[in-house]
Amino acid sequence: MAVGLMEVHLVKAKGLENKDFLVKMDPYVLIQYKGQERKSSVARGNSSNPTWNERFTFKVEYPGSGSEYKLILKIMDKDTFSADDFVGKATIYVEELLAQGSENGTAELHPSKYSVVNAENNYYGEIEVGVTFTPKEEEESKEEYGGWKESSY
């Protein structure tokens, strides 16, 4: 089993559906992998074409428990006086990346565009994300079990 770090490079999005009426939306991304979740900053300004250029790290085991090797990106619209709006989501399957990284020592998906699907299951925009997996070197046990150095005599 390979244990390592998966780094997600959240670059930008394009053509997102504005959920706000009369005002620009303030999108952010919830990135989920198995039981872990990370949250991007809120992009302000060009709301339907936001840029984040942020990196997030997840601990990964391959093969690990379960068979779902999915990275889920939920794009949300930050609202001040009400619940945040769901804009859309994208799913990246990373099983091949983890297998390749386990075998070769590292693997990378260069930033690519993934389709964003809204609540009605229609394609509405795209998000650009890169993913890297690097297994950790397993440290040999450095435990010492007693001996003359540990003795008080």
TrEMBL record:
It holds the Pfam family C2. Residues 1-107 form the C2 domain. It comes from the Eukaryota. SUPFAM superfamilies: C2 domain (Calcium/lipid-binding domain, CaLB). The keyword Calcium applies. GO terms for molecular function: metal ion binding. Keywords: Calcium, Metal-binding. This is C2 domain-containing protein.
